[in-house]
Amino acid sequence: MGRKWNNIKEKKASKDANTSRIYAKFGREIYVAAKQGEPDPESNQALKVVLERAKTYSVPKAIIDRAIEKAKGGSEESYDELRYEGFGPNGSMVIVDTLTNNVNRTASDVRAAFGKNGGNMGVSGSVAYMFDPTAVIGIEGQKTADEVLEMMMEADIDVRDVIEEEEAVIVYAEPDQFHLVQEAFKEAGITDFNVAELTMMAQNDVELPEDAQAQFEKMIDAIEDLEDVQQVYHNVDLG
C-alpha cells in the first residue's frame, strides 16, 4: 500500500487541467456508464462510481449533464471497453484501460506508445495477475487513521488498510465496498473526498534507476496522452 495517492492525484490533475483532457475522458466514461444502464446514479452503480470520481477532479456540472443527456437522447455512439497489458523498462508492469470506437486504432496507438519508449505489449493476463482491484477513498484533515478505522469497524466494513498519507487519510478496500465506505463517512457528516477511485493496485512496487525511471515516465505520458486511454496503472514507485 502507500502509493501516495494524494501526490499521484495532484500530479495527474495538474497535468490534465492544462489541456482539459480529464474532462473529455470523464465525459466519455459518464456517457458509457449512463448508456449501459439507467441514466440515474441511484439505480446505476457504475454511473454512481464515475460521478463520485468526477467530483474529486472537479469536473464541471455542465460536462456531466451533457454526457448524461447524450445517453438519454439515444445516441448511437458506442465504445468498447478494452484492457491492454505491457512491460516498461527493467520489467516494470503497466495496465492500460481504454474506451474506444475504433479497436484497431487504439491497439496500434497503445502498442506504439509502448514500443517507442522502451516497452512492449504483453498478452492478456501477462500483467494483471500482479495487481489487485481496489477501492481507494480518501479524506483530508478531518479524522485520524485510527478514528477512520474505528468508523469502519463500527459500520462492520472489513477494509484492507487505513493509512495516513501527509494530511490525508486513505482507506483501501475491496471494490464492492466502495459505496459502503463512502456511506460510513457520510454517516459521520463527511461528504467531501479528495480521492474516490476504483483502481488496480500493484502487489509489489518496484524502484527504477534514474535513467530507466525517466524513460518509464516518458512512456506513461505517451500512453496517457492517447485519446482513447481512460486509466493507466503500474507498479513503479515514482517517489
Automatic annotation (TrEMBL):
Belongs to the TACO1 family. YeeN subfamily. GO terms for molecular function: DNA binding. This is Probable transcriptional regulatory protein DP120_01185. One of its GO terms (cellular component) is cytosol. It comes from the Bacteria. Keywords: Cytoplasm, DNA-binding, Transcription, Transcription regulation. Residues 3-74 form the TACO1/YebC-like N-terminal domain. It is found in: Cytoplasm. It comes from Planococcus halotolerans. GO terms for biological process: regulation of DNA-templated transcription. Residues 79-236 form the TACO1/YebC-like second and third domain. InterPro entries: Integrase-like_N, TACO1_YebC-like_2nd/3rd_dom, TACO1_YebC_N, Transcrip_reg_TACO1-like, Transcrip_reg_TACO1-like_dom3, Transcrip_reg_TACO1_YeeN, YebC-like.
